[in-house]
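Practice problem 4.
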């Protein structure tokens, strides 16, 4: 019987040790509950081991020593189980301190419990047994055990009352069973000893049973909390993306719900498939360096386009045992991108067609205007009849108005198509304002209006910005104000404030005493082709694009445009722009320019020795240029084709070549390239100036890139033409006219 009982209890110890080290190996060593269970298993196994060794002893002293080791493990087990229950019950701090503190008092009892004089050892049919002598220490030990058991039961009751989840109640009831088993075992041992009999190790058997219950609680608790294993399993089956697990032979082993829905098959049916039964992809898709690869594939079952992420799975020996394949169905995205690409292609073609149309319109419209304005300027220069001069002056004004309208339409189209860019360069604010005043004063005087420029003298003069666009914005607002003002004045007030060391915010406020704008119409001011209060302004020329262009140009320059108006009294348009300041020069006093007369009989220069070749397929344009340069006494040769240009360049030397772009057979760019390649070119040093009616954004840069020295847009103004040609003529040929300086 002794040997059988020894083997039984020894087996309990081995099993408990095994379970404890399994928990340590598989669990997290940083997790508190894993640590506590491992230590409790060690103490439980130690209790069983030393009690089993006591049973087979024949020497009382050795039995006493082994019993002392076993009692130490009893106290250790009580401490661990108490702390585990405290952890699970989540009671208040005061209860935690009392329960944990009291169980540690067992250490004070331990020295007296292991004294040989307090224990009686005797041989029984079950082996060496012992019982505690009646006395104060036996009573203290019994009371201690009862209070510990009562504390544990109270913790469990508290846990049951606080539990709102089913799993928490299951844990609490299992803990109660565990405590009851230990209490019953200890009670039987104590009762037998109090009756005067040697104790049978019932408490040892009971604590093993309790330890097994505790292990089941531990397993249940681990399954009910988030761990690496159950979390990965949950994520694997819950994600919407199809996930496949293939073995090293590329056979499908496991699929998640997303994969079965993707294939339209059940899980058992899916697992009969191999990789090539599911995807059409390259043979080396699974043969890659590193741990991860991403490839494009197509699914056999539904013909969907997929982006596949492949991850290798390794065993403990770093051998590949399988692959995790995550599938991203990109069919809709690919179709959408293809659709967007087609839309973009159509939009690009439409934009190119629009650009070509605008360039063609610019050329086709400006060419006849060039003829009208050029011929009219010759009338103004050469005619002496005052009546005819008045008629010609009216033609000139109408032509300029027509040109402004055409420029508005073309500028608006450039902005809409994104072809207009802001080019920042240093410019003189004083010169810009002086030019604006000179241009607008004629219109204001014709209507009997006062044009006032209020500019502080300390305003910085040299600024960095797009002078052309700033001038266009202000000119548009000023001419707009003059158009809609019948009496009174138009005032441009300039103000500035310093933002940084070399940066200012400059404000241009144009105030008029015109017809004003109704409050409900202010929001429509910047609309396309929209003229507000049409009944009142129908007699005033305009396209309704001016302010829309101004608004877009101001935004391009990162500025702001605001409007204040009182209907019937006038309006104020305010433009705010940020500009860089260069140097310390200020505007000072604006010089007053006298209104220029209609006639421009005096040329900018005279150069009888200069030779110019003009190439244009339009005979009227040739006549205009020749007439505009008549007073300069320059020798002008006119030809109508690129081929003729090459023939003349091979025979004669010219100082400047004015070359039209759009010509039949051989255009201007092709003609220039042929000129550069001619071995017998007599005009290698001649400046070649592009003469064109194409005024689209970027054309100047395009012509310069093609090799032209300069660019002149139609319609051509006589003075501008003279100044440009003078720039490229040899100095010894040119005699400047002092009256034009």
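Answer key:
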């Amino acid at each position: 019987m002794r040997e059988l009982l020894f083997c039984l209890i020894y087996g309990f110890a081995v099993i408990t040790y095994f379970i404890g080290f399994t928990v340590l190996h598989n669990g997290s060593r940083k997790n508190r509950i894993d640590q506590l269970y491992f230590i409790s298993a060690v103490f439980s196994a130690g209790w069983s081991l030393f009690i089993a060794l006591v049973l087979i002893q024949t020497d009382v002293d050795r039995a006493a020593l082994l019993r002392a080791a076993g009692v130490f493990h009893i106290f250790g087990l009580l401490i661990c189980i108490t702390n585990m229950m405290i952890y699970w019950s989540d009671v208040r701090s005061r209860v935690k301190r009392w329960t944990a503190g009291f169980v540690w008092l067992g250490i004070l009892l331990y020295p007296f419990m292991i004294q040989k004089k307090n224990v009686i050892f005797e041989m029984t049919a079950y082996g060496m047994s012992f019982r505690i002598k009646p006395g104060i220490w036996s009573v203290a030990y019994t009371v201690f055990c009862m209070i510990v058991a009562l504390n544990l039961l109270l913790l469990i009751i508290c846990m049951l009352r606080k539990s709102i989840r089913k799993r928490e109640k299951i844990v609490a009831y299992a803990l109660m069973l565990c405590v009851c088993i230990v209490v019953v075992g200890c009670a039987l041992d104590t009762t037998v000893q109090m009756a005067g009999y040697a104790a049978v190790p019932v408490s040892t058997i009971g604590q093993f049973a309790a330890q097994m219950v505790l292990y089941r609680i531990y397993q249940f608790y681990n399954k009910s909390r988030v761990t690496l294993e159950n979390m990965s399993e949950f994520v694997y089956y819950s994600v919407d993306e199809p996930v496949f697990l293939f073995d090293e032979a590329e056979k499908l082993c496991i699929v998640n719900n997303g994969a079965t829905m993707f294939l339209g098959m059940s899980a058992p049916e899916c697992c009969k498939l191999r990789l090539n039964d599911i995807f059409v992809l390259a043979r080396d898709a699974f043969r890659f360096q590193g741990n991860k690869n991403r490839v494009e594939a197509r699914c056999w079952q539904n013909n969907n386009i997929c982006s596949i992420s492949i991850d290798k799975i390794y065993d403990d020996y770093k051998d590949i045992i399988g692959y995790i394949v995550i599938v991203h169905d990109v069919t809709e995205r690919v179709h959408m991108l293809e659709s967007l690409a087609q839309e973009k292609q159509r939009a690009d073609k439409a934009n190119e067609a629009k650009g070509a149309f605008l360039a063609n319109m610019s050329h086709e419209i400006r060419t006849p205007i060039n003829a009208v304005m050029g011929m009219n300027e010759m009338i103004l220069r050469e005619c002496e009849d005052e009546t005819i001069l008045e008629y010609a002056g009216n033609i000139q004004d109408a032509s300029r108005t027509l040109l402004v309208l055409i420029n508005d339409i073309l500028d608006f189209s450039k902005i809409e198509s994104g072809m207009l860019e802001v080019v920042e360069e240093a410019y003189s604010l004083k010169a810009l304002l002086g030019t604006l005043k000179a241009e607008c004063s004629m219109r204001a005087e014709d209507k009997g209006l006062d044009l006032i420029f209020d500019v502080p003298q300390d305003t910085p003069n040299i600024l960095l910005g797009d002078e052309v666009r700033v001038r266009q914005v202000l000119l548009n607002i000023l001419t707009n104000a003059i158009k809609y003002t019948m009496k009174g004045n138009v005032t441009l007030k300039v103000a500035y404030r310093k933002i940084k060391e070399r940066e200012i915010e400059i404000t241009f406020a144009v105030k008029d005493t015109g017809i004003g704008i109704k409050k409900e119409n202010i929001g429509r001011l910047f609309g396309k082709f929209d003229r507000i209060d049409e009944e009142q302004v129908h007699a005033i020329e305009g396209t309704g694009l001016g302010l829309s262009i101004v608004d877009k140009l101001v935004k391009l320059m990162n500025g702001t445009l605001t409007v204040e108006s009182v209907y019937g009294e006038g309006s104020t348009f305010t433009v705010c722009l940020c500009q860089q300041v260069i140097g310390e020069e200020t505007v000072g006093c604006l010089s007053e320019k006298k209104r220029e007369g209609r006639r421009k009989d005096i040329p900018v220069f005279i150069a009888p020795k200069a030779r110019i070749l003009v190439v244009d397929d339009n005979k009227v344009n040739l006549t205009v240029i020749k007439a505009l340069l008549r007073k300069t006494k320059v020798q002008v040769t006119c030809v109508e084709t690129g081929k003729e240009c090459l023939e003349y360049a091979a025979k004669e030397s010219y100082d400047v070549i004015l070359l039209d772009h759009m010509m039949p057979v051989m255009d201007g760019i092709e003609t220039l390239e042929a000129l550069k390649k001619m071995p017998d070119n007599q005009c290698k040093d001649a400046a070649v100036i592009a003469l064109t009616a194409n005024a689209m954004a970027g054309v100047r840069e395009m012509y310069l890139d093609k090799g032209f020295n300069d660019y002149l847009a139609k319609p051509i103004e006589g003075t501008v033409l003279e100044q440009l040609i003078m720039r490229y003529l040899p100095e010894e040929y040119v005699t400047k006219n002092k009256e034009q300086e």
